[in-house]
Amino acid sequence: MKTWIRHHFYAMHIAIRRLLATPFSSLTNIAVIALVLALPLLASSILVSMEPVARNVSVNPAITLFMKAEVPLAETRELGEQLQQENQAYIEKLEVIDKNDALAGLRASESWSNALKVLPRNPLPNSIVVTIKATNDQASKAQELAQAWSSLPNVDTVQFDSAWVQKLDAILSFTRGVLLLLAIGVAVVVVGTVFNTVRMQALVQREEIAVARLVGATESFVRRPFLYLGALTGLVAGVLSLLLTTFGLASLNGAIARLSQSYGTDFVIRLPDVTWLATAIVLVMIVAALAAQWSMTRHSRF
């Protein structure tokens, strides 16, 4: 166990020494990875900061069931309870609206009060307003429920505007696609940069590697410093990308603060939580170490 730990400490020491031996090249590679990694970090920060704002806006689709004129309020409530029980997994909220309460609300409005005075009776039906839960298949499920409920015997009309739900679904899919492309781009840059760095290091150190093999060094012992070289490059690049993103957000928040204050709000873009950031850095380190392993497998056969 002590020997294993000593070998790993030796490999890390060699990796740090090789990074410091070529400061300009190392700094250039780290800066390239950090700049590319800052893009998904910035996009994630914007999405995380927009989430509380999105909660204040009703984005879940609502289906309104207008009952037939002769259906009393008691039967409307029974139907509401039935729908709630049968579709509990998809219903966020269900509200039964009394036609008398709806008419009173319209009469309270100045634009409708005069027009409603000439009506001999209440023309409004009892209704049920159903809010659908946010799920991956939200739009399709809401459309399916609206079509099924429109055939109920006591229901006269079902009102559901699916166009904006489909647009929202498309926007969310587009956002997820952009983040996926950014993540793939970061992975490609990390792999390419670390691969070439390790390849050059292996060529420069080819005589040292050959001597180590002659004296009995195993392939794991020879390749381990290069793996640490890749992982350390990913670690430093990840930390640098956090600093760059923090500096960029500080400048961006200054302009956003002036704009949001003019609208009487207080909006600030912030970084994701520490767990998310730590996971992102660890993933970059793993990808960089795998790229180093791949490079050594291909370019250390001499």
From TrEMBL:
Location(s), subcellular: Cell inner membrane; Cell membrane
UniProt record, GO biological process: cell division
Coiled coil location: 73-100
Pfam families from the UniProt entry: FtsX, FtsX_ECD
InterPro entries: ABC3_permease_C, FtsX, FtsX_ECD
Mode of membrane association: Multi-pass membrane protein
Membrane-crossing segments per the record: 20-43, 178-198, 226-256, 276-296
Alphabetical UniProt keywords: Cell cycle, Cell division, Cell inner membrane, Cell membrane, Coiled coil, Membrane, Transmembrane, Transmembrane helix
GO cellular component: cell division site; plasma membrane
Chief location: membrane
Location of the ABC3 transporter permease C-terminal domain: 181-299
Domain FtsX extracellular: 63-158
Domain of life of the native organism: Bacteria
Keyword Transmembrane helix belongs to the record: yes
Biological function: Part of the ABC transporter FtsEX involved in cellular division.
Family classification: Belongs to the ABC-4 integral membrane protein family. FtsX subfamily.
Full protein name: Cell division protein FtsX
Native organism: Advenella kashmirensis (strain DSM 17095 / LMG 22695 / WT001)
Lineage, uppermost ranks: Bacteria, Pseudomonadati, Pseudomonadota, Betaproteobacteria, Burkholderiales
